[in-house]
Amino acid sequence: MSERNDAISEHRLLLRQLELKDYKEVKEIMDIVYSNIDGAWTRKEFSNLIKKFPEGQICIEDKGTVVAVALSLIVDYAVYGDKHTYEQIIDKGTFKSHDPEGDTLYGIDVFVHPEYRNLRLGRRLYDARKELCEKLNLRGIIAGGRIPGYKHYAEKLTPAKYIEMVRNKEISDPVLSFQLSNGFHVRKILKGYLPEDIDSRAYATLLEWINVYFEEKDKLIGGKKTVVRIGIVQWQMRAVKDLDDFMQQVEFFVDTVSSYKSDMVVFPEFFNAPLMALTNEESPSEAIRSMAEYTDEIRERMIHLALSYNINIIAGSMPEYYDNKLYNVSYLCRRDGTYDKQYKLHVTPDESHYWGMRGGHKLKIFDTDIGKIGILICYDVEFPELARMLSDMDMKILFVPFWTDTKNAYLRVRLCSQARAIENECYVAITGSVGNLPKVENMDIQYSQSAVFSPSDFAFPHDAVIAEATPNTEMTLIADLDLDLLKDLNTAGSVRNLKDRRKDLYNLSWVMRKDD
Predict the structure, then answer these.
(1) What per-residue string of b and e applies to 178-202 under the rule 16 or more CB within 10 Å gives b?
(2) What's the CA angle centered on 305, arms 255 and 318, to 5 degrees?
(3) Is the dihedral of CA 339, 345, 349, 352 positive or negative?
(4) Element (H, E) at 74
(5) Is the pTM of this model over 0.85?
(6) How far does the chain reach from its first CA to its final CA, in angstroms?
(7) Distance, CA of 247 to CA of 243 (rounded, Å)
(8) Comparing C-alpha atoms, which of 264, 260, 509 is closest to residue 401?
(9) Is the separation of the CB atoms in 426 and 395 below 8 Å?
(10) Distance of alpha carbon 44 from alpha carbon 39, whole angstroms
(11) Whole-angstrom Cα distance, residue 476 to residue 181?
């Protein structure tokens, strides 16, 4: 038992800020680690650094003795750019380069006592630096990194080739390998950064870690949200007397969802299908063209609702008929009074056969006050290229209004939507309609289970389903979507689909039509 207690008490590690009284212990480590490049800084230099930026000087102590250190400054990176030397950054030990109003945390040094290198203390220091960078709302961390292992390969490899092989884990470098494993990437190769570094042949890597949480100074009001609340309407198809009767139902749901302080409300594809029964047309193709005559007025009323209830509205989808061509279009009605639209690009065989519907030609990303969003109407979500292109345009939430008549049709939409959320590291919200319309051919029955999906990783629900409705029941879903979790996933997820995509092997391109 005593042997076990001795083992447990072997170390007592504490992460803290450096103080002036720590100089003697810091000097001892630097003299050991940098014995071949001038050793430790002077007490005056150490004092200058502590006084300039105490928060940026971090150490780990073991039972009261400093054993690992990370030193940093804040700089206005535009002043130095990618061509600078270590001496320029430390300004001959005066550290006048430190700028409290700067935008970048500059990593001056990290060193660990050789007797403690098996405890991964460097990783703790790097994590502390990243936390500091995030809390100070800086763009990222820049550091000049030595490549001491290069001395063994300098005769046969260029610095660029050596760095490439380290990145590919064909070679291990005691400094660069560690930095790459901690989320840094090589921004540039520097010559003469630290001329006395013989092992690196005076070469260095200019390393960068990007703070994905960085934001320009927040507005006191009207700033971008990190948590977005959405409401989706699982819509009951029912007979209506006229357009006013229909819009009264729409306003009920807009009012209801907005009362929960939602940022967005979404309606299903062809949610205005009950109006088709008012057209008195026997042919389905004629009925839907007559229903398209309501589209402009519904859009204008939706814009008014968005303004009145202070909520962005995705108006499901509606038929649009112009130049003797029939399209399926979804309108985004923003709460600032503007609107935009996304056409359905792929029409189903039934839409083509019964209605003579055509597909649109453009894929759009929409800027909103909750961030960038995409809209894919029903069948379009079954084509993964579209969502991937939207994710390349920085889409965070994908909305999929759909209409399906049977469960197997619904499952195609659902399963593809879940795949899009995982592939593109985004949220996906889907909603459809329920009930029946006995007098409307080709729209007579409905099947829906609306839902909100997330990527599949530890920060998200275990089944990657944030919320889902009761099947075939009119209801609303309200869900909060944390956009910061997407940033974490993109940089530190178990898998990183966007980051790991092999763009060196394949890519996507949009082939524009001549008449588009």
Answers:
(1) bbbebbbebeebbeebbeebebbbe
(2) 105
(3) positive
(4) strand 65-75
(5) no
(6) 79
(7) 6
(8) 264
(9) yes
(10) 15
(11) 45
Q: Which two tokens stand for residue 40?
A: 């430790």
Q: What is the mean pLDDT of each run of 10 residues along the chain (516 residues)?
A: 49 93 96 85 93 95 95 92 89 89 94 91 94 95 94 94 95 93 92 89 94 77 81 94 96 96 97 87 86 96 95 96 95 96 96 93 95 97 97 95 96 98 97 86 84 96 97 96 90 86 87 61
Q: Which of 79, 78, 81, 97 is nearest to 89 (CA)?
A: 97
The whole-number pLDDT of residue 433 equals: 96
Q: Which tokens is 176 given?
A: 């660069």
3-state secondary structure of 263: coil
| Spatial distance between the Cα atoms of 56 and 58, rounded to a whole number of angstroms | 6
* pLDDT tens-digit series, residues 345-384: 999 999 999 899 999 999 999 999 999 999 999 999 999 9
Distance CA 48, CA 50 (A): 6
What DSSP line would sit under 171-224, residue for residue?
S--TTHHHHHHTT-EEEEEEESSSTT-TTTTTEEEEEEEE-TT--SSPPSSSPP
- Torsion sign across C-alpha atoms 281, 284, 287, 289: negative
DSSP 220-235: SSSPPPSEEEEEEEEE
CA angle centred on 466, ends 463 and 467, rounded to 5°: 115
Q: Which helix (H) or strand (E) holds 492?
A: helix 483-492
Which residues are annotated as catalytic?
269, 344, 378
